[in-house]
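Feature request, filed as a ticket because there's no other form

It would be nice if the structure record came with a short human-readable summary line next to the C-alpha cells. Right now we just get the raw output. Example of a typical job, pasted below so the devs can see what we mean:
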Amino acid sequence: MSDFTSNFWSVYVTAISLVGIFACLLLLWFSGKAKAMTANDNTTGHVWDGDLREMNNPLPRWWVWLFIITVVFSLAYLAMYPGLGSYAGKFGWSQVGQYEAEVAKGNKEVEPLYAKFNSMKPEDVAGDAQAMAIGERLFMNNCSQCHGSDAHGSKGFPNLTDKDWLHGGTPDKIVQTLTKGRIGNMPPMAAAVGSSDDVRNVANYVLSLSGSPHDSVKAALGKSKFGACAACHGADGKGNQAIGSPNLTDDIWLHGWGENAIVAMVNNGKVNQMPAQEHKLTESQIHVLASYVWSLSNKPGAVALK
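Raw output as currently delivered:
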C-alpha cells in the first residue's frame, strides 16, 4: 500500500475488508431470525426424487459458533497483522522484514566460516580450496544466471575467464563492481558520425582495429569519422577502464560481432547494468566471491565448475 501517493486505496481496502466481515455476521443473524413458510410437518414443500423433502431446521449450533469464532479470529488477525490498507498491525510484521530477519540469521550462523578469510589477501584466498568451494557456490547462486555456470558469459554478459575487463580486473576493482554494481552507457552516435554510409565506414574501421574481416576501402574512409568515438574509446581504440569503455582492438565483442552489429550499436546505443550486491551479500561474502572471480582469469585451471 505504500506505493500509492493517496490514502484512497488504503481506506478502500480497509472498508471492503471490514464491511465483508460484518456483512457475514449480519447474514448469519438474519438467517437465524427469518421464518420460512412451512407445512404442518415442518417441511418447506420442496421435494426431490419423489420423496426427498427439505426440512426447515435451524443451523446446527456448533456450525454457528464455528462461524462466529472464524469472524472473531479474522478481526484479531487484522488487528495484529497487516491487512487493513496501510495499517501495519500491532506486531509490525511484513514479508520484507521476515526475509531480512532470516537472511541476517543465516549470515550470523555462517559468519565464523568466513572470518578466517577476512584478513587474507584475495590472492591468498584464491589459493584456498575451501574458500574457492564457497566462492563457487556464491557464484552459482548469484552470478551464473547472467555470466553462465562456466563464467564464460554470453551476448551482453562479459566472459569472466579472460583478461578483458571493462573496469579493471584487479581484486579491488572486482570488489567495487560487486558492491556498487556498474551501469554501462553507450549513447547513440549516428548523428555525431554522419550519414548512414559514414556509420558503415566507421563500423568497418572498428573491425579493422582488431584484424577482423572488413572492407578496407570503407575502413579507410571511416578512420577520420572515428574521431567521434575517440573521446571514450581513445584515438587508438583501446578503450578506457576509468569509464568502462571497451577495447576495440582485442577482437572481443560483448554485444555481437560484425558490421551490422556495430552499425546497430552506433545507431541505437546500449545501456547495460550489473546490479549491486551490497544489499544481498555481506562484505565477507563479497571478499570471497571477488577472490573467486579474480581466480577465474588468474589461476591456471581455476575454471572447473561443477
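Something like this underneath would help us a lot:
The two ends are 43 Å apart (CA to CA).
The beta strands are 43-48, 52-55, 182-186, 270-274.
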